[in-house]
Known about the structure:
Elements: H1 8-12, H2 16-24, H3 26-47, H4 54-76, H5 82-97, H6 100-111, E1 118-121, H7 148-162, E2 166-169, H8 184-190, E3 195-200, H9 207-216, E4 219-225, H10 229-236, H11 240-254, E5 259-264, H12 269-272, H13 275-284, E6 289-294, H14 310-326, E7 331-333, E8 355-356, E9 361-363, E10 370-371, E11 373-374, H15 375-381, H16 386-389, H17 392-406, H18 426-436, E12 439-440, H19 443-450, H20 452-496
Parallel strand pairs: 1-2, 1-8, 2-3, 3-4, 4-5, 5-6, 6-7
Antiparallel strand pairs: 8-9, 9-11, 10-12
Helix pairs in contact: 2-5, 3-4, 9-11, 14-20, 17-18
Bound molecules: iron/sulfur cluster.
Residues 334, 344-346, 365, 367-368, 419-423 line the site of iron/sulfur cluster.
Amino acid sequence: MFNFLRIENLWKSFSAEVLDTFLKQDLVRKWALKQGEKELYRIFIVENPDKRPKKVEELRYRVMSNLLRTVDKALSDGRISPQVRKAVIKNFVENVIIGESDRQKPFREKYGFDPPTFLTISPTKHCNLHCKGCYAASSAKDYEKLSYDVLKWIIESKRKEWGSNFTVISGGEPLMYESDGHTLFDLFEEFNDTYFMMYTNGTLITKEVAKRLAELGNVTPAISVEGFEKETDERRGKGVFKRILKAFENLREAGVPFGISATATRYNVDTLMSDKFVDFYFEKEGAIYGWIFQYMPIGRSFTLDLVVTPEQRLMMYKREEYMIYNRNIFLVDFWNGGPISVGCISAGRSGGYFFIDWNGHASPCVFFPYYVADVNEIYKKGGTLTEILMHPLLKSIRAWQNAYGYKREAKDVKNYIVPCPIRDHYKFAYGVICKTGAKPMDKNAEEALNDEKYREGLIKYGKDVAKLTDPIWKKDYIEPEIKEEEEKKGKSIKKGA
Ligand code: SF4
């Protein structure tokens, strides 16, 4: 989600050994942390090379600095084992952050823009749970999966074509993936220069699995929770919460850094945004990072009735700011956090991603279930991942992102608190899906596309959320830009006079 290019220079001057020596000594690490924060401040706030709205860069600076602090805390508490620390330096810092810009150069020179930084891949639809409203509509009865050969080809291709060494794995349940005698552990081992974030329900993270993840050092699990025991068991099944706590314990014992991910509906949103929630998962259980995904009306039994209300969404935006500024944690809402990601990152945007599911169907985003290519066919004919980027749907969305804000002057950037083409600007999404002939990824997506009430409901939702958040956007993000420009103009007129 974040373009790490900016902090590349921070690490470049250190070798892995020097960095490891730094990180294992508390005093030296504290000093390094301060230097790191200063450098982040210089890059985001002082230099702001892409001339984003200052408030956008301030939020991004805060989030990155919170992440550094949390990692520092985890190293002090021994929550990241020395073995994992070394592996993370090698796999994440050396292979993902350092040299990214150089690895992207051939693509940039050929196509005139930066490639996506990562892909999200769901290798299997199979899952051991049957959660209410699952976006992937997964269950134990579903066996669709990518073959191991295709999966390998995807990871190799993104590395070769885009210099991308970061991959997100999603579900079904990734730990249930099995193909031709291979599991995901084979993939993690084979691509030890790639860093993986794996969304998982956590129920299969035994002591052995945690130990294996520690040995590999290039995977961080993001475990799904819905709130506390009541909310989690209600959606995911009885007893799941206790199994998740066991998974946390196993990961802590093995010293593997982990995060959480939570789906916000209008019924659990107050819990997710509460201090109690943060105290429990971040302070007590030791999560390093957290993602909030607002329930998206796609997937099993999709319904607009679960979507957080516009008023709740506004509350979430304010609470997210509070978490970032006051609780100093990395807890980011995938939608309201639009300023942090500089808007929508789908459709293979520079620094962004696109999605590939278990059938090999490639779509702009996990939450945009209309596909434009079958990766299995591309693999068979000897094609490239880059050809997917050139599909009219992805190109249209990227053009929309650029016009919305990504390529606009700071004072003209549109409201990033509502950044999502499919959720907040459905009229655009609907039009572009129909125009470019993208195909629904499943029956639910087809029904949604043909459901007039759904369409009207989402369009109205977008308008209502914009009405509530536009004044904040204008006041906090845009007016300071206009004021600064006017001041500059005033000064230059005075000089001229
Ligand atoms: S399409 Fe929506 S959910 Fe997907 S990256 Fe863009 S803003 Fe986020």
